[in-house]
Write a structure and sequence with these properties.
There is one protein chain. By secondary structure, this protein is an alpha/beta fold. It has a single domain, classed as Rossmann fold (3-Layer(aba) Sandwich). Helix content is about 35%, strand content about 25%. Strands 7-8-9-4-10-11 form a six-stranded mixed β-sheet, sandwiched between helices. Strands 1, 2, 3, 5 and 6 form a five-stranded antiparallel β-sheet that branches. A hairpin with a 2-residue loop joins β10 and β11. α3 crosses α4. It starts with a strand and ends with a helix. Its EC number is 3.6.3.25. Belongs to the ABC transporter superfamily. It comes from Bifidobacterium [indicum] DSM 20214 = LMG 11587. GO terms for molecular function: ATP binding; ATP hydrolysis activity. InterPro entries: AAA+_ATPase, ABC_Gallidermin_ATP-bd, ABC_transporter-like_ATP-bd, P-loop_NTPase.
């Protein structure tokens, strides 16, 4: 089977000498076409570091990344959209102006702006500057920016941070819509209930290791599974 994205022994170290620490430890990750893949883990487990390697923001210390079955290259970034941490917005520009800047930088047809704005529900924001948007609107504009190149893979790192319940529900619906239209989505979170409502497959990262990867079985208590795997890893680490 060819995965949209696959990692083999993906590892990342930070620091040097006695301060050197392994943030991501030999992760083998498999994301199928059209899946919503929920990447779960406690804060500091290595989720963001893993996603930053998938998007070229960090270089792996060891291991490899395959995109559509071939070794990942920077050219593949045109087929990968991502929202990592805060949306990269110009607060004094409108939604459309923010998209125009990105489209120009990427050499994209301006028509992609209208499609992205329609997808995230920001067509009617007019002359309102992005700096005056609500947190939910800023998140949606960030996603619109990541959708400009019509990516095959969309990566969202903790996208519900700071959102109110309405914003979370809107984002959940947007993720489902994108997947239904054929976009593969990786969404990371430490909020189990959010992942359980959107994901087809889940991976659990604990202490830098991918300790569980499987299709999401709704008959299984996700919180119990998550806690069991995290405690198992902690016990193994304590026994060393």
């Amino acid at each position: 089977m060819t995965y949209v994205i696959e990692t083999r022994g993906l590892t990342r170290w930070f620091g040097r000498g006695h301060n050197r620490r392994k943030a991501v430890d030999r992760i083998d990750m498999h994301v199928g076409r059209g899946d919503i893949y929920g990447l779960l883990g406690p804060n500091g487990a290595g989720k963001s570091t893993t996603l930053k390697m998938l998007t070229g923001m960090l270089r792996p210390s060891q291991g490899s990344i395959l995109f559509q079955g071939h070794p990942w290259t920077r050219e593949d970034l045109y087929r990968i959209g991502a929202l990592i941490e805060s949306p990269p917005l110009y607060p004094n520009l409108t939604a459309r102006e923010n998209l125009r800047v990105r489209a120009t930088l990427l050499g994209l047809d301006p028509s992609t702006m209208d499609r992205a704005l329609r997808t995230v529900g920001l067509v009617d924001t007019g002359n309102k500057q992005a700096g005056r948007f609500s947190m939910g609107m800023k998140q949606r504009l960030g996603i619109a920016l990541s959708l400009l190149s019509d990516p095959e893979l969309l990566i969202l790192d903790e996208p519900t941070n700071g959102l109110d319940p309405m914003g979370i529900e809107d984002l959940r619906a947007l993720i489902r819509t994108l997947a239904a239209e054929g976009t593969t989505v990786i969404v990371s979170s430490h909020i189990l209930s959010e992942i359980s409502q959107v994901a087809d497959h889940i991976g659990i990262i604990a202490q830098g290791r991918l300790v569980y990867e499987h299709s999401l079985d709704h008959s299984v208590d996700l919180e119990e599974l998550f806690m069991r795997e995290c405690r198992r890893v902690s016990a193994e680490a304590g026994a060393r």
